[in-house]
Design a protein that fits this description.
Helix content is about 55%, strand content about 0%. With about 100 residues, the protein is mainly α. Helix 1 (about 10-25) crosses helix 2 (about 45-60) and helix 1 (about 10-25) packs across helix 4 (about 75-85).
């Protein structure tokens, strides 16, 4: 074993983000598509704070409420996570 890790796959990230959304909305059966908008599904801005915190904890990448507002879909947040995962570990100053 070489100690290298496998980079996260977009499908796995999108599924995990979808699961987080379902948890935050309190509906484990909620149908969420990659282009669904977090806010148009009924999320208040305070829930965006919880989403940002959960994404930081889950993926170890910088995610702010502004990031969620600018990238409010599963697809856009997946791209955000992938881009920041490639950049290296989370630096507390980036939050």
């Amino acid at each position: 074993m070489t100690g290298t890790s496998v980079p996260p796959q977009p499908e796995d990230i999108a599924l995990r983000i979808t699961d987080i959304w379902r948890d935050l909305f309190g509906d484990p059966q909620m149908q969420i598509e990659p282009q669904d908008n977090f806010f148009l599904l009924g999320a208040p801005s305070l829930l965006a704070l919880s989403l940002a915190e959960r994404l930081r904890a889950e993926f170890g990448v910088p995610v702010s409420v502004l990031s969620v507002a600018e990238k409010p879909t599963v697809a856009q947040l997946t791209e955000h996570v992938l881009a920041h995962s490639a950049a290296g570990p989370l630096d507390e100053g980036e939050i």
